[in-house]
Amino acid sequence: MGGNNGAMAGGASGGGNGDARSDKGERRDDGLTRPYAAPPNDGVPLEVADGLWWVRLPLPFRLNHVNIWLIEEDDGFAAIDCGPDTPAVRAVWEELAEGALKGRALTRLIATHGHVDHVGLSGWVCERFGGIPYHASLAAWLWARHSYLNTKHPRSPAYATFLTQHGVPREKIDAFLADKPVATLYGPQPDQFVRLGDNGSIGIGARRWRIGPAVDGSE
């Protein structure tokens, strides 16, 4: 999604896994200007534009965080993504409810895409904050629901057959089959959703945001 003021422009951006920033606008070798010297601590919101708050959530694997966003509206805050279903992420949401939301409501949850680190906790968040609406593309909603339901079954022998046919050593296949799939970080998904369509727009707070097409991380 991209805002009409240029913030988070292009695709369903805003939910990515960001880098450290420089508060002096330092340009590094990669040519990017980073306005903050370091990212915020996990669960501590940082206002990066008027009414737009950056929140980092912890992840339990090598990519150790995900960025979500809170956008101020007249009657509360809209959340862009919510993180995976882990005790640590649930605890952050409880802290946000008691602190950063300032006693105001979470108005709705909006998904950038259906990956577990972005929407794994969506069912819990919607219920925790009073049955708030869940906005997602059809692809994101279906992907997350399918992935959650698929975690109830062990990996089938078809995985081993496929990997063997492509020359993967047996010890690596066994390790893969024994590993806990990341999809287990999906919790129950919302039963209903407000559908987002490609190239449309959605009003959030004082801005309208463009809904990007299905490229890269977005659906």
What does this entry look like structurally?
There is one protein chain. The chain has 219 residues and is of the alpha/beta class. The longest helix is centred in the middle third of the chain and has 13 residues, at 138-150. It has helices at residues 87-98, 116-119, 122-128, 138-150, 157-165, 170-178, and strands spanning 2-3, 26-27, 33-34, 46-49, 52-58, 65-73, 76-80, 105-110, 134-136, 194-195, 201-204, 207-210. The protein is built from 6 helices and 12 strands. A 7-stranded mixed β-sheet has the order 4-5-6-7-8-9-10. A 3-stranded antiparallel β-sheet has the order 1-12-11, with no helix packed on it. The radius of gyration is 19 Å and the shape is globular. Helix content is 25%, strand content 23%. The model is unreliable at 2-24 and 215-219 (pLDDT under 50).
Estimate the helix proportion, in percent.
Answer: 10-25%
Overall structural class, as computed from helix and strand content, comes to alpha/beta
Low-confidence stretches: 2-24, 215-219
Shape: globular
Largest sheet: 7 strands, mixed
Proportion of residues in β-strands: 15-25%
Give the SSE order as H and E letters: EEEEEEEHEHHEHHHEEE
Average pLDDT reading: 84
Question: How large, in whole angstroms, is the Cα Rg?
Answer: 19 Å
Give the N-to-C terminal Cα separation: 11 Å
Order of strands across the main sheet: 4-5-6-7-8-9-10
What's the β-strand tally? 12
- How many separate helices? 6
